[in-house]
Amino acid sequence: MGVTAVVNQKGGVGKTTVTLGLAAAAAADGRRVLVVDLDPQANATTGLGVWDAERTVDHALEGEAPGSLRDVVRRSGWAGPPDHAPVDVAPSSPRLAQREHQLAMDVIGAQDRLAVALEGVAEGYDEVVIDCPPSLGLLTVNALFAADRVLIVAEPAAWSSDGVEQILRNIARIAERRGGRPAVAGIVVNRLGRTRDAAYWDGQLRELHPELVVDPSVRLRAAVAEAAAQSTPVHALTRDGAAEAAAEFDELARVLGMASAAPAEPTEHEPTGHEPTEHELAEHEPTEHGLGPQPQQPFAPGPVASAPPVTTTTGDV
Asked: What is the per-residue DSSP string for 94-150?
């Protein structure tokens, strides 16, 4: 079981699409996944096909009741392939923005309210993914206190590295108070387009954080946005680019340990300890009568080709 917070205080970098893509990839691997939507915009909630939630994360954060998130969690509306595990969601609502202001009044327990709400709930899942709001307020701080690790989503654009530096400093401060948790799982570059500008800023991120940027990057594809808009996992989409996007999220999930390693590619020739004889090889040669030895053709002498003239050169060869 692992709790991963997906963060960046900069808006518009695609944290929710990365959250949903990783959730879909982990579910495709048969893992039990819970998505906690901590963003008052509730995009992850609607992206998971939930529109009418009566109880939300806001209710779970009202007090400090251990395991209070259990009364909020519900099955998502994703209709994925039958061999994929279902995905659960702790839905959000715009009321969560007001809850953040109320948390500020709690001098002692404001920062770990979510960690308390997850007690006894997170253990029922293989992966818990927290979609954070685009800020460094108390909601994001709650996610960092509840998480085992943090995945930073960055866009290959100007000032992106500034946001990454700021979130890294805040993670380090919290880790000092929590015995090294959360760890930084990495930086994933999202919406990587095929432009010189995108390539330049992608290179800048990799140059500044060579040990943190993880591969593969998530390419800019309409299929990813369309999957979220249709409230369906990208793995279930059939339009152009969907299979490539799903493969990127599958590989990203494997790199992050949220899915099993890909099976090894079969080698062209596995040694069996027995080398085939010439006769055995001949039996598998195609003939006009099927497989079997080639019939012996009578020797018929033909014209002898003249040998090409030999040219002699001097000096170094």
From this structure: THHHHHHHHHTT-TTTSTTHHHHHHTTTGGG-SEEEEE--SSSSHHHHHHHHH-SEE
Provide the residue type at 204 as one letter: Q
Residue 152 and residue 7 in contact, taking contact as beta carbons nearer than 8 Å? yes
Domains of the chain by residue range: 2-255
> What percentage of residues in the chain have a pLDDT greater than 70?
82
Distances (CA, A) of 308 to 65, 301, 302, 305, 311: 94, 21, 18, 9, 9
Token pair in block for residue 277: 């004889």
- The sign of the dihedral angle between the CA atoms of 42, 102, 136, 249 is negative
**What's the pLDDT score for residue 9?**
85
Residue 141 amino acid letter:
V
Average pLDDT, 10 consecutive residues per value, the chain (317 residues): 91 93 96 97 96 94 94 91 88 93 84 96 97 94 96 90 87 92 96 94 94 95 92 92 96 95 50 44 43 45 46 42
Q: What is the pLDDT of residues 181-224, one digit of tens each?
A: 999 999 999 999 999 999 999 999 999 999 999 999 999 999 99
- The amino acid occupying position 96 is L
Determine whether 308 is exposed, middle or buried from the number of CB atoms within 10 Å of its CB (0-12, 13-18, 19+).
exposed
* Cβ atoms of 288 and 297 closer than 8 Å: no
- Rounded distance between C-alpha atoms, residue 229 and residue 217, angstroms: 21
Query: Which amino acid appears at position 179 of this protein?
Result: G
DSSP 179: T
Inter-residue contact 27 to 80 (CB < 8 Å)? yes
Report the DSSP pairing between strands 290-291 and 286-287. Answer: antiparallel
Alpha-carbon dihedral 81, 86, 90, 92, rounded to 10 degrees: 10
Superfamily of domain 2-255: P-loop containing nucleotide triphosphate hydrolases (3.40.50.300)
Among the listed residues 53, 58, 146, 45, the one whose alpha carbon sits nearest the alpha carbon of residue 98: 58
